[in-house]
Amino acid sequence: MTEPAPAIRVIRNPDRNRYEIWAGDRMAGFSAYRESDGVTVFTHTEIDDTFSGQGLGTILVREALDDTVRRERTIVPLCPFVTRVLQQTSDYDEHIRWPQAAHDEP
User: What are the pLDDT digits (tens) for 15-28?
Assistant: First the structure.
């Protein structure tokens, strides 16, 4: 009999300026940000190698973006992974302020 997959949850950890994704009791990754003047700048996203290939990076970033929008903040993607997620959907278009270099990438 196989063990059930651990519950996945995303939390905002404002003390560490990052969103964290947890698989059960293990932190599987994070997306770091900085905030000022109604803007959330996403700087880096990282998933532990143990959890790679499971789609957790996308779940993490989508939840972080959803929370950012709920908090009525503008998204600025400096992190390449966050940029790729945003380029794959129009769900957040009205909430993004693109840095010039990220917006010009294919």
Answer: 999 999 999 999 99
User: Which structural domain range is residue 98 located in?
Assistant: 8-104
Within-domain flag for 2: no
Place of tokens 């794959």: 88
Q: Cα separation of 25 and 98, whole Å?
A: 35
> Which tens digits make up the pLDDT trace of 65-97?
999 999 999 999 999 999 999 999 999 999 999
> How many CB atoms within 10 Å of residue 48?
14
- Sheet arrangement for strand 18-23: 8-13, 18-23, 26-36, 39-47, 74-77
Tokens coding 66: 């959803």
Q: What is the CATH number of the domain that holds 19?
A: 3.40.630.30
Domain presence at residue 60: yes
Is the pTM above the cut of 0.85?
yes
* Residue from 16, 86, 73, 21 nearest 47 by CA: 21
